[in-house]
Amino acid sequence: MAALVAENFRFLSLFFKSKDVMIFNGLVALGTVGSQELFSVVAFHCPCSPARNYLYGLAAIGVPALALFLVGVLLNTHTWNLVAECRLRRAQSCSTAAGFLLLSSVLGRAAVAPVTWAVISLLRGEAYACALSEFVDPSSLT
Question: What pTM was estimated for this model as a whole?
Fold first, then answer.
């Protein structure tokens, strides 16, 4: 019986080790959804000013997404491994294919949070409606 439990535990640990990137991306997306909900409740209030709605709505979608992307790139250990390796070798013998694969891995992982932010922002529709309200004639709504 103990061997069966140990075997099942080993299988589960190997399964989760092989899916660690997917689990991490899911946790990042879940955290982003939570922070977007918090941002919508606490910080987002459409100014209802025809001159500022468009920029405010786009900034509410784009600026946090850009910040999340930059944080994702900076916190990735592969970014600093790539920078250190290229500094060490003075960019003379950095393999183009290996560098491209490592850079695409960094950018792909860093893009999870901003894409989630933009999608959830657009699905909620508050920032989108705020941005596009600048181009709607109020008399056409009555």
Answer: 0.78
